Amino acid sequence: MKSATVIGSPISPYARKVFAACALKGIEIEIDPLVAFYGDEHFTKLSPVRRIPVYRDAHATLCDSSVICQYLEDAYPTPHLYPKDIVKRAEARWLEEFADTRIADVFAWKIFQAAVIDPGVWNRPRDKAAVERAVMEELPPVMDYLEEWAPAHGYIFGDISIADISIVPYFANLSWARVEPDANRWPKTMAWVRRLRDEDAFARFEKMGAPLVRTQIADHRRVLGEMGVKLTADTHMTRTDPRRGPLTVK
Ligand SMILES: N[C@@H](CCC(=O)N[C@@H](CS)C(=O)NCC(=O)O)C(=O)O
Hints:
Blueprint: E1 3-7, H1 13-25, E2 28-32, H2 41-46, E3 54-56, E4 61-63, H3 65-75, H4 86-121, H5 128-149, H6 162-167, H7 169-176, H8 187-197, H9 200-213, H10 220-226
Parallel strand pairs: 1-2
Antiparallel strand pairs: 1-3, 3-4
Helix pairs in contact: 1-3, 1-7, 1-9, 4-5, 4-7
């Protein structure tokens, strides 16, 4: 049995990208559901930029979802998550990069942060105006671009690839911020996203994240344990005060 530990809360789209890759590769994971910003000193040793997810198996301890997914592909080549065709592979990597940067910027750092993270982590009021501004001005160009790539059937490059895995988790965070892009305006994208969110590799972890958004951070482990999630015996979340990591750029 292939097994690994992933440090990272199912609330994080980057963590769910890694969870989905592990699920598709048949890797059984134990989760330390560390919420971003709450890592202790031992976590800083594993992740010097203090970001989740961190992946650990018998051979490696790795930071960064893209590095982790590439490692999983190298270590466990089937099923392939990167298209074999060189051009498609490069395009898939570009879409991964677009997800990790621009989609993250709008969906996570602007919308989800103002709606959920600011009140839940930083004790700041929910900034409805900031959410509305991002939804009106910044979301549409991202959705227009995705609509160019979204397939009418199946997945972007035939089989599920790193492109699908990287993009789709952000839509759950958008739902948790109570934002649903218009399916009439972006029909292909919203149907493709729905198909993937219904797949076990995504749905299972989205189900773990959903209740946590409405749960006190101190109770996350208990709630996940009650859901039957396989948790690590130890946690890197021994602090109760949140701290931003050292990176100022996204
Ligand atoms: N490039 C990283 C980004 C990971 C990331 O930004 N994670 C967020 C949570 S979704 C985090 O840990 N933020 C903590 C911080 O910025 O201090 C990856 O792909 O894993």
